[in-house]
Protein 1
Amino acid sequence: MGSSKLRIFYFSPTGGGAAVANAVAKDGGELFDVTLPENRIIPPQICSADENLFVFPVYNRGVPEICAQYVRSLKGNGSFADVICIYGGVTKGKCLPQAAKLLSDCGFVPRKGACVPAPHCYCKRQINALTPERLDLIRDFMKGKVHLSPISSEKKCADLSVQRAMKRVTGRCIVDHSLCNGCGKCREVCPSGAADATSTDDALCILCGACVKKCPQGARRIKFYTPFPSLFVNANCKERKDEFFCFSDGGTR
Ligand SMILES: Cc1cc2nc3c(=O)[nH]c(=O)nc-3n(C[C@H](O)[C@H](O)[C@H](O)COP(=O)(O)O)c2cc1C
């Protein structure tokens, strides 16, 4: 009957969630970087006594489908699950209640959750930096040292027009072939298997921007079909506060 262990699952194409997961792991816990497809193939076995932390980005005001699919491959077996949603400081939408429902549908007991603003992958202004002080606060949250509000008191952080505009980001990843040298670094970081050395499979691309960030030639960019990034991200991406919630009983079994 092994002792309980903390698993820290994170999906982080542009590094915000990875910084949070690595900070938490300083206090113990096994890291599971599930950003790349090959790391999502074999789900770990989870016992009821285990504790789990899921660090997800917020895409389109909620949990990205690619993360939901991974969670559905796990069996929670009644173990505790905490969740940290990393969002770009525009709107967190309903990410936490959505994540809690998803986890509970997969056999986890959702315990506590945090909404953590981080630099937005589409925003030119680098705000909501994950400073050492903020990472320490998140570690305190994991250690149970931070006051948790009930999730029922959670407030939306953006007005309704923004909520609607953020509903769906559409676009495609474009490769400038005059710059691309076929090095394949884009393929190494693509979480959905969409990026090939010189092209992108539109059907698989989740518009995460990992390849854009990684490309040494600056040959990749996302071309948006919606006015979302220019109008809404730059206008509504703001400094936001970290927020900490408990899902039900505040963390006691
Ligand atoms: C497709 C897509 C949709 C996004 N939707 C939202 C959103 O609804 N609200 C928001 O504040 N940020 C949104 N973001 C920004 C990300 O949540 C933010 O960049 C986050 O830091 C990404 O996490 P990572 O750095 O761990 O990959 C979106 C990003 C992408 C790629």
Note: The longest helix spans residues 95-105.
Protein 2
Amino acid sequence: MKYQTLKKTDLRISEIGLGTNAVGGHNLFQNLSEADGIEFVREALNNGVNFIDTADIYGVGRSEELVGEVVKEFKRDDLVIATKGAQQWLEDGSVKTNNRPEYLRAALENSLQRLQLDYVDLYYLHFPDKETPFAESIGALARLKEEGKIRAIGISNVSLEQLKEANAHGDISALQSPYNMLDRSAEEELLPYCVENNISFIPYGPLAFGLLGGGFTKDTKLDAQDWRNSVPLFQGEQFGKTLETVDKLKEFAAQKETTLPNLALVWLLAQQGVDAVIPGGKRKERILENIQASDMSLSKEELNFIHNILINN
Ligand SMILES: NC(=O)c1ccc[n+]([C@@H]2O[C@H](COP(=O)([O-])OP(=O)(O)OC[C@H]3O[C@@H](n4cnc5c(N)ncnc54)[C@H](OP(=O)(O)O)[C@@H]3O)[C@@H](O)[C@H]2O)c1
């Protein structure tokens, strides 16, 4: 496993991290086995992955609790734990985005309790709330950093304009945005800004939320409650087109004697500004496959070949 430095910190993160929205994330995926979720995290930590991504909203706290159970079996200093706040769940079951400083402080305290930790290494503002100025929300996170409750500040789901405002004082170490072979919109503005401004770009949905796992066919149907129904790549005509591209990528992966998910991960790691990927999943067998991507590389010719497949998507 190769490790990279999270920008503006001395934290070393494994290039292959772990996404845990399906670890106890019952609000996002149905019928999850929590025992499998625990095994998934443990398998990753036992195999060189030290960068874990969770959020308070995953399973409305349950993902953090399960991650916390496993993390305490390992040496704290070796791990880089990232979580996110700003999604306030209300008693009626609805979720409100809240960036108020007092709310963020309380949300972090609750996350620390669930994770059974004194600090988190990276704390992301999960979504902007459109009301609170970034000077206030990021200012609140900067104070939490001074107090030692977080080591670095991240942000997610923002436009370039919002990112610039949030990073006005250079506080942001990491941006988490959607980016994968099938959705390259981050390359237009966000990724170049991160490269120029010393921010680690951490793509979410690195396997296009499962499409680049290679198991989808035109007959695959998501559960009605599955949040991925809202992702355009899974919808209508685009879904069919996507599967054609996936087939071409699979063919190329086979020629290279690798798998499509590994090709998708190493392709992301080859992009300047991407310091780690955080593939998610529900099964521990995924881990041993996905970590192999860190041992791979792509030549300039191979990157060009892939580019030509992708521009025709
Ligand atoms: N900041 C945000 O707003 C935001 C939004 C979304 C996600 N995230 C974070 O990003 C992480 C990654 O995104 P994601 O989990 O949604 O999507 P993803 O990593 O692109 O895809 C996950 C899917 O890929 C499948 N998969 C993983 N490894 C595979 C392999 N080797 N072969 C075949 N299939 C494989 C998993 O299948 P199985 O389920 O069958 O194992 C799962 O369905 C999340 O877990 C979360 O931590 C953040």
Note: Residues 19-22, 53, 156-157, 176, 204-210, 213-215, 261, 278-283, 286, 289-290 surround NAP (CB under 6 Å).
